[in-house]
Amino acid sequence: MNFDILLAVSPILAVAIGGLLLMLAEAFGKPMVLTGPQAGLVSTDAGAGRSDELALGSAVILFAGALISVALWKVGPESLPGAAALAPYLIIDRFTLFFCFLLCLGGGLASLLAGGYLPEHNLDRGEFFPLLVFSTVGAMAVAASGDFLSFFVALETMSLGVYCMIGLRRGNLRASEASLKYFLLGSFAAALTLMGGALLYGATGHTDFVGIGQGIATIGKSTSAVNAPLVLVAVALVIAGLAFKISAVPFHMWTPDAYEGAPTPTTTYMSVAVKSAAFAVLLRILVIGFGDPRLASWGTGWPTIVAWLSVLSMIVANVIAGRQESVKRMLAYSSIAHAGYTLIGVVATMHSGQGTPSVLFYLLTYTVSTVGAFGALILCGRRGAEAVSYEDLAGLGKRHPAAALAFSLFLLSLAGVPPTAGFFGKLYVFSAAVDSQLNVLVVIGLLNSVIGAYYYLRVMVYMYMREPEPGAPLATPMRSGFVVAALIVAAVFVLVCGILPNTSLDVAAAAGLSHG
Amino acid sequence: MLQTYLPMFVMFAIVLVISSVMFFGGQLIGPKNPNPEKLSPFECGNDSEGAKNTKLSVKFYLTAILFVVFDIEVVFMYPWATLFKTLGWNGFATMFSFIVALVVGLAYCWKKGALEWES
Questions:
Q1: What is the reported pTM?
Q2: For chains A and B, what is the number of CB pairs under 8 angstroms?
Q3: How far is A242 from chain B, CA to nearest CA, in Å?
Q4: What pLDDT, on a 0 to 100 scale, did the predictor assign at position A516?
Q5: End-to-end Cα separation, chain B, in angstroms
């Protein structure tokens, strides 16, 4: 038995086993005794009404996964040579470990938010938590995959859980719409990616990214049997499929509806974990698979496509986000815009070694800021009075200064104001782009950051400078230790990455992918 | 090779002849006395009413999905069984953990009542 393998996949394995145990705990726990009209009866669903313990369980499992990734990072994946037997299906390197940590952190924070949100909004279904944990297992496997086969299986594992978590509010039309939209378009996008993979296999005879890269490198030699136009079509298909998962314009149409219809913890998870995992595999495919100098160059390769996706995402999302009346929808568009900023870093990987680390660091800052912003939005609402519109938040700064302060911190971080994490995230992405002579992209990115600041600050204007209309429904914050705990963790990360960015930056730099 | 399959072709020919004799023979030699009632398309019962897309109970889907899940498991077991000796304890441990995960799933379905038809 090769123990290197077990040790190397231990972050994924620990979370998977934890998920199985959580599933059993959910089904075999003591059912809740019903109150109200059915008082005295015992609930038929053993998982219902036990969000407290299940949320705690899933948070512990996911944070344990994050800690194991950190431990493995300290040990160093290089010292486990036996783990190479898993390649190319699962590649355990520092890049993977960084994403395991990031995804477990995002998933754990989302489950803490769910522990507060689900009981408050009468959605107390136990299934949510095992689904979240299994979906995170899939997300980690996506980040680790170095082969189209394992990537596709992992992608579906990740997505299946998310489809169910979106439709958790079963009787609700909007939730069903959101779930169906995400399911149909998600399957479509997965089919596009798979088609790209199939074409690449046809062209190069390899499904693993390294083999594909080697096959592409032979193009132009007299002995090469690789069909270059086929490769170009495949590159476009793969990028289109992944652009759907990271919700880049013009593959973003589902995002606002799915984000708005889903329960807010699911929205958090989608915008944080699903997006990060998709960025992980996008980077791996582009750098390892399509890293050939001719394919990774301006004019003949993917940088042009990715740059257009980036520019469109930033401009379209920022313009539409400013016109939203719902804060949740605004945050959905903001997540599209952030995908655009991150894609600048992806384009920068073509020339600069700083490209990958800047994307990783950006994803870290984006994760903690977004979890915080959605968490603060959850905190500001109660059963039957979920805070959705700007008007709901009017005057919150006077009535509930702590909630308003937390919300402001995360919004400032999303806007990229120093000394928060978001500022350094943008700074490093832009500086990596400048290193790669992508000055036009940087200028567009900077202009968009200014537009973005408008709608983030608009929330703060409502919270601190507007009085609620007489007779309008007031948002009263809920009380939940879970949500507060998640906000505190997120706030610590936002401030630490903002004030002392060196440590996390060194980590991101060490996690960078090397060409070939 | 043709020699080997010759009996089969002969059998096909015999089957073809016998079935066509039965099929067309009835038409040729049977009595024919058509009337309008007999020629009208056959129907029985009342005209159908109500929605055409009848809703099926979700139980059918649950059962079908469970069947697929536990059926696929056999697909994994066959290759393992054929290479049982080659794979050794390593293969045994891998397969065992796979089956444990499946059993957990089965226990979950059972406890959640997915296997009960009447509830």
A1: 0.88
A2: 21
A3: 28
A4: 42
A5: 60
- Nearest Cα residue to A118 out of A367, A490, A489, A483: A483
Prediction ipTM score: 0.81
B81 to chain A, any CB pair closer than 8 A? The answer is no
Parent domain of A418: 301-516
**Radius of gyration, CA atoms only, chain B:** 28
Chain B residue whose CA is closest to A21: B104
- Indicate the residue type of A172: N
> What is B2-112's CATH topology?
Methane Monooxygenase Hydroxylase; Chain G, domain 1 (1.20.58)
By Cβ distance, the residue of B93, B111, B113 closest to A1 is: B93
pLDDT tens digits, A312-370:
999 999 999 989 989 999 999 999 999 999 999 999 988 878 889 999 999 999 999 99
Question: Does the CB of A20 have a partner CB in chain B at under 8 Å?
Answer: yes
Q: Is the pLDDT of residue A39 over 80?
A: no
Contact A23 B111 (CB under 8 A): no
Judge whether A159 lies within some domain: no
Tens of pLDDT, residue by residue over A152-180, are: 999 999 999 999 999 998 888 999 999 99
Reading the block at residue A251, the tokens are 């593959």
Which of these, A58, A155, A59, A144, lies nearest to A98 by C-alpha position?
A: A144
**A190 token code pair:** 């997965």
With respect to residue A191, please indicate whether it lies within any of the assigned structural domains: no
- Is residue A85 within 8 angstroms of chain B, CB to CB? no
Flag whether A346 is in a domain: yes
With beta carbons less than 8 A apart as the criterion, state whether A366 and A336 touch: no
User: A33 forms bridges with which residues in the sheet?
Assistant: A42
